[in-house]
Design a protein that fits this description.
Layout lengths: L7 E9 L7 H8 L7 E6 L4 E8 L3
């Protein structure tokens, strides 16, 4: 059995968690296919930011 390659994440955009609309700006950015990729939103607690990220597989 071949081991799976580790998945890395590329941060496409950073959005303040204190924004009046919450995570909406990050969600909208990810939904638009940020830069033509399949992006989703995660919360970075240490920096108090929402991140739009895309999974990338190292070559």
């Amino acid at each position: 059995m071949t081991p799976a390659l580790p998945t890395q994440r590329t941060v496409l955009g950073r959005f303040r968690a204190g924004h009046p609309r919450g995570s909406w700006p990050a969600d909208e950015y990810a939904a638009q296919g940020a830069q033509g990729t399949d992006a989703h939103v995660v919360m970075d607690l240490p920096t108090d930011q929402f991140l739009a990220v895309a999974n990338t597989t190292p070559q």
